[in-house]
Amino acid sequence: MAKWINWFMVIVIISAVLAVYCLLLLVFALFQYALKEPLDLHCVHKVFMSVGLLIVLAGIAAICREWKEEWPTVSLFLQATGPFLQLGAVVALTLLSWLVFKSYYRSRRRASKIIIMLVWAAVCLAGFLCPLLIHNFSPCVLEHLPPKPALIGHRGAPMLAPENTMMSFRRSLECNVTAFETDVQLSKDDIPFLFHDNTSLKRTTNVKEIFPERQNNKPTNFTFDEIRSLNAGKGFLAFQKDPLQATPPLSDTEWSNVRNQTVPSLNEILDLAKEHNVSIIFDLKNEKFNNNDANYTVQTILESGIAQHLIWWLPPGHRAEVKSKAPGFRQVYGSLSALRDDRGSHLNVKYNSLNTDTMRKLRSENVSINLWVVNERWLFSLVWCAGASSVTTNTCHILKDMSRPDWQLEPMLYRMIWISADLASLLVMFLLFLLQRKKKAKRQIFHLESERTVPLLANRVIKS
């Protein structure tokens, strides 16, 4: 059971439970306040809240240390949800105004009242006017929607078949992919084959069983016949046994096909791409260590007879030499600086590497932009609105069915929603302010009547 446990998900679930717990505790505290009851937290509540705070701080520290490059994803998420977060903030401000106005009328010092209203006005102003920034910040607030990005199968369709196998690439064809994305390495006998990991074959094959004494060897230390003898579907078969993973929707025949998958050669995918007029983009996994990889790969491609424009050449090393041997290859660059230096027109970068303004500027310069790896609907919707030309994805079977982004608002419609929500909130706040003022007036009248009644009673007592 231990090998199936995803500890990251366990921590996420515990954090979510503690977050809901703290939220409910806050709601009950507000009820206590409304009922004028004292808030007396039990020590257990204090412990749980402290644990929740520690988990949040530890998570932030871990992200800062281990996944610094993922922080831009927070900005992307805010871009995708900005308009809805603003509407939620307006509702929250409206509800909280009752407590603020109550505190205002309870304050006896004039300075305290001024500070309360100034702070509240500043917070409301920020909440009401932030759509001025959201309009330019959120790419899906736009009038004309760009064309849907083309789909590129990341190692084929790895959610439906073992990655980097012919079964996976054939399944990706069902998604009408524009290109196959893969990884090329050179075997010990100089045959290019498709495999991602360049440290060992253990993750996706049964090399432990076939070559136990060589299981930790690099893939390049095996001949292609040896690599071909391995079962490339072994890692994918773990989906069937792992109770914490969603089982891919495969038939019994397809599961049987998974058990018969082998590591393909580069020639096999070239033939498939040529047959279906699909492009290929790939990494040379050992280009830094072996200068022969580019030469043998280019030679294999040219000998296959595939149209050169179907090859998207991404490896940066030996680019000039590759251009001279195969001028028809589409040169794709992995960074904006490299694209600018070589005056290229095809860019392949991580999904959080470019902001919306940069993407739209590049598109106006006729630069095609491919973003990797985009798997979620909300992220695909965002880069669609931003103008991405294509995306590399593991979930082509999900994204292919999207005919529009999850949401898109024309600027004029968004302005109407924003202004209407703000005006409605201001009206409710004004009514709540008047209601609190009326309640205070009633309390003052009652207090004055009480003061008048007490001396009369005292006089009667003295006379008697």
List the helices and strands and how they pair.
Elements: H1 7-34, H2 43-66, H3 72-106, H4 110-129, H5 131-137, E1 150-154, H6 166-173, E2 179-186, E3 192-194, H7 207-210, H8 224-228, H9 234-241, H10 252-258, H11 266-276, E4 279-284, H12 292-304, E5 311-313, H13 319-325, E6 330-331, H14 336-342, E7 346-350, H15 356-364, E8 368-372, H16 377-386, E9 390-393, H17 396-399, H18 411-463
Parallel strand pairs: 1-2, 1-9, 2-4, 4-5, 5-6, 7-8, 8-9
Antiparallel strand pairs: 2-3
Helix pairs in contact: 1-2, 3-4, 3-16, 3-18, 6-11, 11-12
What key phrases describe this protein's structure?
single chain; alpha/beta; nine-stranded mixed sheet; 9% strand
N to C succession of SSEs: HHHHHEHEEHHHHHEHEHEHEHEHEHH
Strand content range: 5-15%
End-to-end span in angstroms? 88 Å
Helix content: 55-70%
Tell me the Rg in angstroms.
32 Å
The number of distinct β-strands equals: 9
Assembly type: single chain
Label the structural class.
alpha/beta
The number of distinct helices, counting runs of at least 4 residues, comes to: 18
Overall mean pLDDT? 88
Shape: elongated
**Low-pLDDT stretches:** none
Q: In this structure, how is the largest beta sheet organized?
A: 9 strands, mixed
